[in-house]
Target: Olfactory receptor
Amino acid sequence: MTEVHTIYLFLPFQRLQGIPGYEAAHCWISIPFCLLYLIGIVGNSTILHIIRTDPSLHEPMYYFLAMLSFTDMGMSLSTLPTMLRIFWFNANAITFDACVTQMFFIHSLSLMESSVLLAMAFDRYVAICNPLRYATILTPQRIIHTGVILLLRSTALLPPLLIHLLWYPFCDSHELSHSFCLHQDMIRLACADITFNVMYGLALVIFFWGVDSLGIIISYIFILRSVLRIASQEERLKALNTCVSHICAVLILYVPMIGLSMVHRFAKHSSPLVHILMANIYLLVPPVLNPIIYSVKTKQIRVVRLLNHS
Model:
């Protein structure tokens, strides 16, 4: 007698998670999350508005900052709908197609942010190491071309990874670990050989975050070498001060990202709260802190904001 195996070619829906064990308090828990989303969206919108309306900020550094703010705002908006549905209405079901779509935006925007930070590191390198040619190297046309290349780079290689999910049989639990869809969370539900997605995902991490972080490190090696040649201590500090905001932006992206990857790979059986906390820090902290850091540390933006409120 032939044994019949039932395999689901796809999951009709997934179930996202709020805060396990605290479902009764989701409405109260939503308050700090809503405040973070509000701060992130309003802060990045303000940065974009100031850069667009003030001609004195139409410079390469601020164009790249506008790209960073646009990416951060997109990151917030890509996770906001499912987060609020869970905390406000306890609606944690999401269709497979919607989950993959959200996954595409979350991961592509994350890759885009890393690419923009690399471009900003190059901007600081040119400004400090080759200031006389700054305007001729980073022309508006080249910045536009750079933005298009970064966008294509961050989106073109991701679809094969996500499309391949359609061919996996999913016959495990429908429960995901977060309030939004992540590839590393979805793939653990597959009951098949996931070697392609694991290896392809690893290649993407190396190609994007590995190359980007290496490029940022190399840029700052040249920056430090150039700064150390400056005789005046005051001029050294002034040059390095222009890099503080960018260094902070790099740290608040890469530290939570590395932490989340470590948790998914080496702490799979740890408390679900650890996974949820790391994922929320990774996706919520950069959009919230970046506009605050750049508003505080960038004199031109601070002055424009004061003038607008006066």
In short: The domain at 13-309 is CATH 1.20.1070.10 (Rhopdopsin 7-helix transmembrane proteins). The CA atoms of residues 150 and 297 lie 26 Å apart. Residues 96-129 form the longest helix (34 residues).
